[in-house]
């Protein structure tokens, strides 16, 4: 596909109203299809995936009706473990990172280990759409599509557990809780999965994961090579002044005025301190200070987030923030503290893994249905696995303009076109089979 045609496709797919600032890359690089030729005919996988359609829809609807919040995925975990055991997987380890599951499916042929990750948690959002599979838990909804991710991974396990002769090596399934973030004071998510050995015994040599994307039409997938999603850090700034009567501000130090200056000055990191070609978002999300209309506040708290797509920029930000805050507060006789927390890492798709995987995806869906995306400044804890082993995280189209399915993630109206389930299973089954076959030959 030419890059011009790709750009045109992407503009149709990614209207600025949905993805403000998201523009297509100049095109998918010229990958070498011959390096990834699969001897497993995608057509047989496609047929097997089609045969699973009603089962996939039933699983997804069951998960959707029973959403559970981060680190509370008890039922979800129980149901998945039951399904995996019924399929006869070789190992189904539960209780990893609280309600996570690590399962192994060993192939009939020797080869390496590859992992598939699916996240399990829902969000504290009330479902407002009237669908037959509406959430039965008030105030909780699978509004990020993790019900789809679990269903696709289960579909792969179901399909391949009865066709082990196709597998050169072992597939490791990671069902991960708390991707949206563990409750305050709790550990969770990918970091805890890794800490509790999810990538050990055996260690996969690559990991694949997917995320729903309502901006992409069902039947298509979106990919990035290199940085795909941002690192997400957070900070809490405390501005300290001196409390006095609101009518006599000259006798004190007004923390509100100083905080206002700090909010503005911090934006110059983006505009004046970091190379304009390097993505950076610095957002102040909350501001709290003062206790009465006629008292000068002696303390203001500012909370915010920093998003970056390169480690070089990311590592510079805390010092630049300190320089700015130090200068501004000193000018007014105030002082400050900052608690800067590095959180989720950059989701970085290993370029070599993308390059060798892309032809398989194009073969399964058709070249025009694999579209190149610009990076997102939202984050994903899939990135933690990618810090240990090469990984490829891509986007599964779940939208349908024709059916009116366009609501974005984390909204009360979020929904998916369930045709995405068969597509999802087809793509990732071929991807992992092809990976194992190719790398078993290289051993
Ligand atoms: Zn989410
Ligand atoms: Zn998500």
Task: Provide the succession of SSEs.
Answer: HHHHEEEHEHEEEEHEEHEEHEHEH
The major sheet is characterized as: 8 strands, mixed
Rg (CA only): 24 Å
Q: What is the end-to-end distance?
A: 33 Å
Number of strands: 14
Describe the model.
This protein is of the alpha/beta class. Helix content is 35%, strand content 24%. The chain is built from 11 helices and 14 strands. Strands 1-2-4-3-5-14-6-13 form an 8-stranded mixed β-sheet, sandwiched between helices. A 4-stranded antiparallel β-sheet has the order 9-10-8-11, covered by helices on one side. Strand 3 (109-119), helix 5 (146-161) and strand 4 (168-176) form a beta-alpha-beta unit. Helix 2 (42-51) packs antiparallel against helix 11 (419-442), helix 7 (255-273) runs antiparallel to helix 8 and helix 9 packs across helix 11 (419-442). The longest helix is centred in the C-terminal third of the chain and has 24 residues, at 419-442. It is elongated, with a radius of gyration of 24 Å. One zinc ion binds next to loops.
Topology:
Layout: H1 3-13, H2 42-51, H3 53-65, H4 74-86, E1 91-96, E2 100-106, E3 109-119, H5 146-161, E4 168-176, H6 189-195, E5 207-217, E6 221-223, E7 226-229, E8 231-240, H7 255-273, E9 280-289, E10 299-308, H8 311-331, E11 335-344, E12 347-349, H9 351-365, E13 370-372, H10 383-386, E14 391-399, H11 419-442
Parallel strand pairs: 3-4, 3-5, 5-14, 6-13
Antiparallel strand pairs: 1-2, 2-4, 6-14, 7-12, 8-10, 8-11, 9-10
Helix pairs in contact: 2-11, 3-5, 5-11, 7-8, 9-11
The chain binds zinc ion (2 copies).
């Amino acid at each position: 596909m030419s890059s011009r045609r790709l750009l045109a496709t992407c503009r149709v797919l990614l209207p600025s109203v949905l993805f403000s600032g998201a523009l297509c890359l100049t095109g998918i690089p010229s990958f070498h299809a011959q390096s990834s030729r699969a001897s497993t005919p995608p057509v047989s996988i496609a047929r097997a995936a089609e045969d699973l359609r009603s089962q996939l829809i039933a699983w997804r609807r069951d998960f959707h009706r029973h959403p559970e919040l981060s680190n509370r995925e008890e039922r979800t975990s129980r149901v998945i473990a039951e399904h995996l055991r019924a399929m006869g997987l070789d190992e189904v380890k539960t209780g990893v990172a609280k309600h996570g599951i690590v399962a192994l499916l060993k192939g009939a042929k020797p080869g390496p280990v590859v992992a598939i990750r699916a996240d399990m948690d829902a969000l504290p959002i009330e479902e407002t759409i009237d669908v037959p599979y509406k959430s039965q838990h008030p105030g909780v909804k699978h509004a990020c599509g993790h019900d789809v991710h679990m269903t696709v991974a289960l579909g792969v396990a179901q399909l391949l557990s009865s066709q082990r002769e196709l597998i050169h090596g072992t597939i490791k399934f990671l069902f991960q809780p708390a991707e949206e973030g563990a409750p305050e004071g709790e550990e969770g998510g990918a970091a805890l999965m890794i800490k509790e050995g999810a990538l050990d015994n055996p260690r996969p040599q690559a990991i694949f994961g997917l995320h729903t994307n309502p901006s992409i039409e069902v039947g298509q997938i979106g990919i990035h090579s290199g940085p795909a999603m941002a690192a997400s850090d957070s900070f809490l700034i405390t501005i300290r002044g001196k409390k006095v009567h609101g009518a006599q501000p000259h006798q004190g130090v007004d923390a509100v005025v100083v905080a206002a200056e700090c909010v503005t000055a911090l934006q110059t990191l983006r505009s004046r301190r970091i190379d304009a070609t390097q993505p950076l978002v610095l957002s102040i999300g909350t501001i709290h200070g003062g206790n009465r209309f006629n008292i000068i506040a002696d303390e203001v708290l500012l909370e915010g987030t920093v998003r970056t797509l390169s480690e070089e920029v990311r590592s510079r930000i805390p010092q630049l923030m300190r320089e700015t805050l130090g200068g501004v507060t000193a000018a007014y006789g105030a002082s400050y503290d900052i608690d800067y927390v590095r959180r989720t890492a950059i989701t970085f798709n290993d370029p070599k893994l993308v390059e060798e995987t892309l032809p398989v995806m194009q073969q399964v869906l058709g070249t025009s249905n694999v579209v190149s995306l610009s990076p997102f400044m939202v984050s994903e804890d899939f990135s933690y696995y990618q810090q240990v082993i090469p990984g490829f995280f891509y986007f599964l189209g779940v939208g349908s303009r024709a059916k009116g399915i366009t609501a974005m993630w984390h909204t009360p109206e979020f929904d998916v076109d369930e045709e995405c389930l068969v597509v999802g299973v087809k793509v990732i089954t071929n991807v992992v089979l092809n990976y194992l076959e190719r790398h078993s030959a290289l051993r």
